[in-house]
Structures are given as structure tokens and as C-alpha cells.
Amino acid sequence: MTYKLSNYIYGMVRVRIRGLMPEKFVNLCIAQHILLWDIVKRDDDLYANMRLNDFFRIRPITRVSQVRVRVVSYRGLPFIIKRIKRRKMMLVGASLSFILLNIMASYIWFVDVKGTKQLTTEMIKEIASQSGLKPGIVKDSVNAKQIEKTIQLNIPEIAWAGITFTGTRAEIEIVEKTMPKQQDNAPADIIAAKDGVIVEFIVLSGKPMVKKGDTVKKGDLLITGVVPEQITDNVSGQLDAANSPPQFVKAKGIAKARVWYETYGETELATPIYQRTGNREVAVNINIGSNKISLKSADLDPNAEFETEVIYKKLPKWRNSGVTVESEINIFHEVTTSWATRTIDEARDDARAKALAAVQNLIPETAYILSRTSEVLDTSEPNLVRVKVSVETIEEIGQSVVILSQ
Amino acid sequence: MPSRNRGLQKLAGILEIPQDIVLDLPRITMLGNKQILIENHKGIIEYTPSLVRIKVSQGELIINGNNLSLSNLQIEQILVEGTVRDVVYDI
User: Fold this and answer.
1) Residue A317 is assigned to a structural domain of this protein
2) A-contacting residues of B 27-86, CB under 8 Å?
3) Which has the least CB within 10 A, A31, A78, A133, A347?
4) Cβ(A343)–Cβ(A355) under 8 Å?
């Protein structure tokens, strides 16, 4: 092992020995302490390995033994060094790129902000750059603890700020304080958000405009925030509503109403199923700005049906800033159509499920559902099943609206 | 010469000295029929892939075989590799 290693370090050559007395050459080499190995005879020629420094000593021996020695191949460290010496610029370039990489890696090139909810990242970046953390700064000159403290002091909404470095990227992590919600005390009315019949009506503040059992339409005023001041007339002792100036309050109250919903669901008895046959045609366009250049157009069979898939390939965003350059690949998959038929019962269930899903989106979660009915409607089209679903609920329909004209 | 040798051999037996050193004989080690190592040789006479003739103190050692190659040649030893069929002493 060490023998082979030393051979590699000193370099070795494989030589072809041609001549009258190759055996004499070998014997003389042995006598001169010239190491030979892997000697093979092929077509009267002798091939042998020897060390590179021995190779320069065999000239007298070749003359004595009347052989011609020629190098067939060589390997080892001296030959590699020689090759590298010949290509000095490569070495210079390699070391230069290594140095450049090290220099570039010691700067910060990106600043990211994470964890913001109410605050803008620009605001935090601004404060960070004022205290020294901005792209293009040497990483070692950044005092992370100091900047964390500055950010926390400058923005009172921040509970905690942390700065971490990953390579050339600095990440500012922010945790915002959760502020208590401010109560809105602006004067407001309560109006109906939906049509319905009032079943429960409690006024906490404001003046009622409807009463229990009334039918209201969407947008009707339920409780008004405009309340006449209760001044008792000294003379008559009666309430004088007409002359008193109005007072504005925020109307509060509960207005529960019976609300009806109606939705429809449709299902076809036979639905088409498209299946790709595997045949496809590809068209390639290049879009430069608003111009379209067709590189390859698709040769389509006008009788066949196709499904179109469009793939856009763009350059990275920063290179695409001026004129948009993108390639557009249209793939036309040929399809065969088969019809899946269903029984009327299955179609009706499916239509009802669709209708119910639609009505579910309309009903708020807090609503109390009184009844749910569904009926199949007659349609003129033979292929269609239509189901109507009606739902009756009791729910809160009051909606607070700020009084604008004061 | 042979009588002197016999005397030396006796002496070596009495003094328990390895005889190859005293008598300048080759030491031949075979590893199956794959390798044959000849120590204390006097040089090679002929080499072909099927025949290797090596000069030793007593005369000539002839190795017949296939694909023979001289793997290691040094002043005190020769290593022959390949398929050895027979080893013959020609005195």
C-alpha cells in the first residue's frame, strides 16, 4: 500500500522495451537497483513499469543491451503538477473565486421581516437600516442586540424583536402586542339585515321602530339611535317630544326574526365524462411584450374534441422588469366523451345535496333551524332534475349602522 | 566443489544455521499455482508468457505455464505471477 503510494508520489512510467536482448536489459536493471514490476511480454515486446527517477538512469543500460525504450503511459503526482503549472490561469481563477466568495459571504445582502400583522415590514426595515442593518453592510459590524432594542423602543406595538443571521440573510422576527379592542361608542341605528317576521324584540338603548310580529324587509330601521330628550313640560306635565332637541345614542338590542331561505339544485341525468386518449398536439408561442411569435402551431383534427392545457414559462421576475418575455405552451389533449347516466333517485339526491350545500352558505352559524323541506320541481327538460330546498330559521337580523348626519 | 559443499552443509546442520544462507541456494516459495517467488537468484535468462528461465547458483530454474508475468523484479527476488504448470531444475 505504502509502496504504491510512494510510486504515485514519485511518478511512474510504463515503458515498452523493444530490442534484441530484453532479458539482458532486465538483468542489468536489477543489478543497478532499478525497480521493475508488472513485466509482460506481448508480441516480442516487453512492457514494464518503473519509477520516473529510474527512467532517467536507464540510458546507459539501453545502449549496452541494444534495446529501444519508449514510454507508453505515465501517471503520478509529478505529471499532475506539470499539467497544473501549464495552466496557471486556472489556478489563479480558482483562488480568486474562492476569495471573492468569502468576501461576498461576509456581507448582508437581504433583510427579511417576519411575524408582522398590523405593522408594515417597510417601517421595521426603515428603523433597522437607520440603526445599521441594511443590505450591503459587513456582517461583523452589525450589533444585533442593540438593533433589537432600538426596534422595540421605537415601535411601542412590538413586544419582542429578534435578529438572526443565516448566511447573507438577516431575519428580523417581530412579535406584536395584542392591544385591547376599543369600544365603538359612535351613535348608531340598528337595521334589518334580512327579510323576516320579528319573533323576539328587546331594546336595550335607543328607540324601537317596530314591534314583535311585524314583517320587516331588508334595510328597514329596527331601533333608531335618535332619541328625543325627555323633558317634562312644567305646565302640562306631559312629555313634549316635538320641541325637544334629539339626542344621539348607540342603539342596542336584540331583534330575532323568522327567516326563510330557498335554494335550487339541478342535476343532469346523463353527464359527459371526458377521457384523454393520449393523443396530443403541442403549440409553442413566444410572447414578447404584446407581440406573439408562433414557433410551432398545432395541427388539429377539426372533428375531434380537445382539452386545452396552457403552460406559461417566464424568466425570473427581476429579469422581466421591462418587456414581458415568456413562452406559452398550449397542449391539446384529444378526448373521447362518454355519458354517465343515473337513475332519477340518484339524480334527485344529488340535486338536493347541491341545494342544501348552497343554502348552508347563506345561513349563519348561530341561526336556529325550525324546518327544512325539499321538493322536486317539474322541468320541461327531460334530462334535468331540479330540487327546491326551503329552510326556515330564527336568527338575529339586527345590524348596527353608524348615523352619519348629526 | 561438491565435497566442500557437503562439508558446509554438515557444519550448518551442527550450528543450526539456515542452509540457504550458508550454501547460497535459492529459496522458492509457491502460492498454489498462481505465484512463485524466487529469492537469491542470479538474474533471468529468458522470459516469454509461457516460459521463464531464471539463473540460480546451482544452474537454471525453468518455469512453464500460461500468462506468466514478472510482477516484481529486485536484486534479491523475482515474483512470477500467472498459471504455473511445472517447475523444472536444470543442473
Assistant:
1) yes
2) 43-49, 69-75
3) A31
4) no
